[in-house]
Amino acid sequence: MLKILNKTRKVSGKMSVPKQIMTTFFALLFGGGMGIVAKFLDLNRLPSFLDWLDLSNFLGRTAPWIFIAVCLAVFSRSPLKAGINVFAFFVGMLIGYYVWTSVFAGFYPDIPYLMRWLILAVVSPFLAFLIWYARGRGALAIGISSVLIAIFCCFAFNLNFADFRILYFPEFILWLASIGILFKDVKQSAFSLLISIPVALSLEYTGLLGIIGIG
Fold first, then answer.
1. Cα separations (Å) of 182 from 55, 78, 135?
2. Is the overall model pTM greater than 0.85, yes or no?
């Protein structure tokens, strides 16, 4: 298995320990800031001329958080750093979101909702470790990329053949962006995009995303 992983994507270059600590600390702070912003927008309206951004509704959905985690993972220096950075991001997000909720909003968060995000934070390092290889080369990279693109496809589109349409335009943008950040070359990316179609249909019609709590 290690041979397959090394063949898929190799760690390029080294980063000093202080820089590694700083990048992880930045991921933690970024997560905390995003958590505060999400809760602030949940409780406060933006000025009317900014309503078109729909930020409160957007950040209340799962897709943007998964997209940020994917970006942090694939652009990390190594799969290990990907796991650490993504975990730090989700820990920061949870701290920022729920401290703001309890201290400034004056109420405690919904426990089932909190547990869902805690579970995601716990498993995120392992998922990020694998996701790092999506920007590699070969069958494994194509497989991981196709699954990621398929997930964003499920967020973006109604995949019912009788009523195929874009469900939510910001998530359509994230679907396009996911194709962009996972791009390696034309041939490999075309394979990933092609394979993502049956994968997305499988996820949609089995309801798997809803079952695991991210649909």
1. 25, 16, 6
2. yes
